[in-house]
Amino acid sequence: MRYVIMADGKGTRWGNYSGIPKHLIKIGDETLLERTVRLIKQTDESNEIVITSHDYRYEVEGAVRYEPKNNVLEIDRFTDELIDDGVVFLYGDTYYTDDSIKTIVESETDTILFFGNRKSIVAIKVENGEIFRCHVDKVRRLFLEGKINRCVGWQVYQSFEGLPFGDNIIADDYVVVEDSTRDFNAPEDLKDNIIL
Fold first, then answer.
1. Model confidence over 138-159: pLDDT tens digits?
2. Contact at 8 Å (CB) between 184 and 95?
């Protein structure tokens, strides 16, 4: 299994708060990225971990940093050239607990499985890269044609499930990890977060 930690976002809502990118927030004595890499390694020893980022500061022991060839739209974070069978995409600005990583690693699917809560998708397990690529491409195309107003993980989930684009509705192929992850998108998320 290959784990791709997506960390090549623009961070516009974060705004370089406290002079650091959100992926380098310290939780105890390690950054969010270091924590995610450590938890993956503890749960799945025979793995490959890739951090997608153009920022040299995102070099983490136990992972390889990869600079995506294309990162224009938010959906491009899935790094087209890394989409394949047996890949787990994890959001680099998420605090994962041991339990959430264990759930992501151990959950099985024949196609695609999404993880998160009603607000955010925090990981996507892809066993069939061709199906995943098909839905990513469809969402990108619909967004560029002006038929949908966002193109992120939720729209890929909606496309995969045949749901209407719009509200975050949870149906099949979705594992809720409500209490075991925290997102960091804006400084308020850091200030309000009890895990720190």
1. 999 999 999 999 999 999 999 9
2. yes
| Count of residues in the chain | 196
Tell me the pTM. 0.87
Label residue 62 left, alpha or beta by phi (over 0 means left) and psi (-120 to 50 means alpha).
Answer: left
